[in-house]
Automatic annotation (TrEMBL):
Enzyme type, top EC level: isomerase
Gene3D superfamilies in UniProt: Chorismate mutase, NAD(P)-binding Rossmann-like Domain
Identification of the protein by name: Chorismate mutase
Enzyme nomenclature, EC number: 5.4.99.5
Organism: Sulfuracidifex metallicus DSM 6482 = JCM 9184
Top-level lineage group: Archaea
SMART domains linked: CM_2 (SM00830)
Length: 349
């Protein structure tokens, strides 16, 4: 066997240098963050990011490093750099009620930014597991609600309206309670009514991202209710926690979601089924022949199948769902006719 240990030792030395340089870059970014905060500038500067990207690509090209490598690694560096620039001047006492994927995503972000975060829920062991992952703490629901200023309800919509919160909602009096449900209408009216009855402030939110860790730079929709009053503090809270905020109202949100979620998921569910059924009818295995597009689409379809319950819930509850699905079917038929018509014309010529 040829001795590879000396090459590995060299690789280890290079890796050490890479890490020291990354650490130096992060320190410099921290300085940029302080300057930006002093000047009231936003953390994300797309123009600068494009400029840095171009510099990297041209230097990498000279060194024989593929552009695709730069394009996959630099966005990661930007997103970690931006996390280091987050520094809210006002630390909030935030309670996260729930321990699922979105609770984990928001806990990663809010604890990293420096807010005080407490995890709670019916299952204290699960709450404590999530809390320890991000070096924060868990409490039982009553203590947590008494302690917190912002209560983020990160449990499924069906659980919110099931009566599960009946004993805890009165403890939210005087506090700000936010849900993160993507299907709004019935959760929104349930929590709005509860906020009037129990004297808390209800602001609905919809994080427009999946359960990823440290979702810096992602978008969150904020939907004020009749008990929200002035929501500037809520907007500031999310903005300074690194998310980009879109303020909207329930109806506009449902309309937008009927396209962004209902229509897209509907086509994807159909596509997934059609691929399976038609392939088996024809006796072929399409993944043996996968193209770049097919691979990308398959990845998205897998995600849709994995999130089927949430997706079905949105399909069932969005008030524009039926209208949009029917329009979607009409469009598919029209596209089909257009193709047939074109083919007919070609055959004649
Ligand atoms: O130069 C800046 O403004 C930075 O904040 C640094 C940096 C970077 O990592 O290079 C990070 C975020 C911005 O969107 C642009 C660039």
């Amino acid at each position: 066997m040829t001795d590879i240990s000396w090459v590995r030792e060299e690789i280890d030395k290079v890796d050490e240098q890479i890490l020291s340089l990354i650490s130096l870059r992060f320190k410099l970014v921290g300085e940029v963050g302080k300057i930006k905060q002093k000047d009231g500038r936003t953390i994300t500067d797309k123009r600068r990011e494009n400029e840095v990207m171009e510099k990297w690509i041209s230097r990498a090209r000279g060194l024989g490093i593929p552009e695709s490598f730069v394009k996959s690694i630099l966005p990661l560096i930007f997103s970690y750099s931006k996390m280091l620039e987050l520094n809210p001047d006002e630390k909030r006492r935030v309670v996260i009620l729930g321990y699922g994927g979105m609770a984990r995503s928001l806990t990663s972000l809010l604890s990293l930014v420096g807010h005080e975060v407490v995890i709670t829920g019916r299952n204290l062991q699960r709450a404590s597991n999530l809390a320890s992952e991000f070096r924060t703490v868990s409490m039982n629901m009553k203590d947590a609600l008494k302690w917190g200023e912002f209560i983020i309800v990160a449990i499924p919509p069906a659980a919110i309206v099931s009566g599960f919160l009946d004993n805890v909602l009165p403890l939210a009096r005087g506090k700000t309670l936010m849900d993160i449900s993507s299907s709004k209408n019935y959760v929104f009216s349930f929590l709005e009514k509860a906020s009037v009855e129990n004297g808390f402030r209800f602001v609905s939110t919809h994080p427009l991202f999946g359960p990823s860790l440290y979702p810096v730079g992602e978008k969150i929709a904020i939907i004020p209710s009749s008990t929200s009053t002035n929501i500037n503090d809520v907007i500031e809270f999310w903005r300074k926690s690194g998310l980009s905020v879109i303020e909207t109202d329930p109806d506009s949100h449902e309309k937008a979601m009927s396209i962004v979620q209902v229509l897209v998921h509907f086509y994807m569910m159909g596509l997934s089924k059609a691929i399976d059924e038609i392939s088996s009818e024809m006796g072929v295995n399409p993944s043996d022949f996968e193209t770049t597009n097919f691979r990308e689409v398959s990845k998205s379809l897998q995600r849709v199948n994995y999130l089927k319950d949430v997706i079905m819930e949105i399909q069932e509850n969005n008030p524009y769902s039926r209208q949009v699905r029917e329009a979607g079917i009409d469009t598919l038929k029209r596209v089909n006719e257009e193709i047939n018509l074109k083919k007919g014309k070609e055959n004649k010529t």
